[in-house]
Amino acid sequence: MNGILRKWKGIANEVPNNIKRIFMSILLNHFGMGMFATLYNLYLQEIGFNKAFMGELISTTALASAIFLVPIGFLSDRIGRKKTMIIGVFFVSICQILRALLVSNNQLLFFSFLLGIFNAFFMVANAPFLMENTTKEIRMKVFSINFALMIFASMMGNIIGGSLPLLFLKTGMFTMAWGQRMTLLLSTIASLLAVLPLFKISEVKIEGKADIKEFIENIFSKSTWTIISKFIIASALVGFGAGLFVPFSNVYFENQFALSSTQIGLIMSMGQAITVFAVMMGPYLANKFGRVKTVFMLQGLSIPFMVMLGDTKFLIIAIIAFLIRQAIMNASGPITSTIMMEEVPDKLKGLTNSLNQTVVQIGWAICGRLSGVIIDGYGYGRIFYLAGMLYAISSVYYFITFKYLDKRTSVATEAV
Question: How far is CA 167 from CA 163, 179, 261, 317, 385, in A?
Answer without folding.
Answer: 7, 8, 11, 29, 37
